[in-house]
Specification:
The protein is globular and about 60 Å long. About 75% of the residues lie in helices and about 0% in strands. It is built from 15 helices and 2 strands. A two-stranded antiparallel sheet has the order 1-2. About 0% of the residues have low confidence. By secondary structure, the chain is mainly α.
C-alpha cells in the first residue's frame, strides 16, 4: 500500500514539474496526455469489453466542435465568426474567454455522451467484425457531414477563440492547457481504476470472455455496453475540446474526425501497451508518442513508414502488448504463483 502511494505520488509530482523540467517540450507532453486519454477510453471497449471499436474518433471530433462552437456562440454569432475569419472580427474579453471555455468543455463532455447513448442501442447490438466495420463508418460519415455544415465552417474548418490579450504571454497559455490536459488524464485514469474494481468492470470482462453466458446468468449486457460507451464518449469529448483549443484550428477530416491518424493511434497505443489492463494503454500511449515525435523530428518524410513498421512489430512480437510481455517474464511481480517445476519443464522442452 505504501509503495503504491509513493509510486502514484512520484508520477503526480513528475507530471506537475514536467513543464519546468522540460519547457521546450511542454506542448508535446500536453499532446501525450491527450493520447493517454484516447488510449484509456478506447480500451474500455476494445480491451475490457472485447469490442474493437474504430468509431471512438466520433466523440473526439464532436467534443472539439461543440466546445469551440459554444465558446463562440454564447457571445457572438457563430455563422459570422466562421465566415469572417473569427478572431479577426470578434474579440473575446478575458472574462468571456474563460466563461465560454469552461461552459464549452462541459458541453463537450455532455453532448458526445448523449450521442453515444442515442446511437448505442443500434450499434452495440452488433458483434465482432460487424461492429468494427459499422463503427469505422461513424468517423468517416461524421467528417463528411461536418464538411457540409456552413455554420461551423464546412470543409474549410473554423478557428477556435484565441488566447485573450492582456492576461499573459504565450507561455502562460501553454502552461494553462498543459495542466488541464494533465488533470484530465489523471481524472480519467483514477475514474477507470475505480470503475474496473466495481461490478461495472467485472461485467465488462464477463462480456469479453463470453457474452452469451453473461446474458444467461441474468446480466443486462446491453446496459453495461451502453454505459461503457457513454463513459468513453464523456472523456473523449473533453479531450477533443482541449485539443481544438490548443491547435487553434478545427478541420473536419484531418483534425476533428481524423480516423486515419488519431482513430488508428488510439487502437495501436492500447494494443502496444497491453489492452485489457489499466496501465497498458498509459504505457503504450507514452511509448508511441515518444516514438512518433522522434521520427517526426529526425526522419521527417519517413514517419509513416516508421509507424507502419511499428504496427508490424506490435502484431508480430508484442501480441499481448508490453504489459503482457512483462507479466509473462516476471509473473511473481504481479502476484502470480510461480511453480518452479513448471519452469524447469518449460526450459527442458526448449
Amino acid at each position: 500500500m505504501k509503495k503504491n502511494i509513493f509510486f502514484y505520488g512520484l508520477i503526480l509530482a513528475l507530471g506537475i514539474a514536467a513543464p519546468f523540467l522540460f519547457p521546450a517540450f511542454k506542448l508535446q507532453i500536453s499532446f501525450m496526455w491527450i493520447l493517454v486519454v484516447l488510449s484509456l477510453t478506447w480500451d474500455v471497449q476494445g480491451g475490457q469489453m472485447g469490442y474493437n471499436s474504430f468509431g471512438n474518433i466520433l466523440f473526439f471530433g464532436i467534443g472539439m466542435y461543440v466546445c469551440s462552437s459554444v465558446q463562440i456562440g454564447i457571445f457572438f454569432p457563430l455563422g459570422e465568426w466562421t465566415a469572417s475569419g473569427g478572431e479577426k472580427t470578434f474579440i473575446h474579453t478575458p472574462l468571456q474567454y474563460f466563461q465560454g471555455f469552461f461552459i464549452g468543455l462541459i458541453s463537450a463532455a455532455i453532448v458526445p455522451a448523449i450521442v453515444a447513448a442515442v446511437i448505442g442501442y443500434g450499434i452495440l447490438g452488433l458483434r465482432g467484425q460487424y461492429f468494427a466495420i459499422c463503427t469505422l463508418g461513424l468517423g468517416i460519415a461524421a467528417g463528411e457531414i461536418a464538411s457540409g455544415i456552413e455554420l461551423i465552417g464546412a470543409g474549410q474548418g473554423m478557428t477556435s477563440p484565441p488566447w485573450p490579450k492582456g492576461i499573459g504571454s504565450i507561455e502562460l497559455r501553454s502552461q494553462f492547457f498543459y495542466y488541464l490536459c494533465f488533470i484530465l488524464m489523471v481524472v480519467t485514469f483514477l475514474f477507470l481504476k475505480w470503475a474496473y474494481q466495481t461490478r461495472f468492470g467485472l461485467t465488462l470482462n464477463a462480456i469479453r470472455d463470453n457474452e452469451d453466458k453473461a446474458e444467461a446468468m441474468g446480466i443486462h449486457t446491453m446496459r453495461y455496453k451502453m454505459l461503457g460507451w457513454v463513459v468513453s464518449a464523456f472523456f473523449l469529448g473533453i479531450a477533443g475540446g482541449l485539443m481544438g483549443n490548443m491547435i487553434g484550428y478545427i478541420e473536419p477530416v484531418e483534425i476533428a474526425f481524423a480516423g486515419a491518424t488519431y482513430g488508428v493511434f488510439m487502437v495501436l497505443m492500447a494494443i502496444l501497451g497491453g489492452k485489457g489492463t489499466l496501465w497498458g494503454p498509459v504505457i503504450g500511449a507514452m511509448v508511441f508518442h515518444i516514438f512518433k515525435e522522434g521520427f517526426w523530428t529526425f526522419f521527417l518524410g519517413w514517419q509513416y513508414v516508421a509507424l507502419g513498421a511499428l504496427i508490424v512489430i506490435i502484431v508480430v512480437f508484442f501480441p499481448e502488448g508490453i504489459m503482457g510481455w512483462v507479466r509473462e517474464k516476471y509473473p511473481d511481480k504481479f502476484g502470480e504463483v510461480v511453480d518452479e517445476s513448471d519452469i524447469k519443464a518449460q526450459v527442458e522442452l526448449k
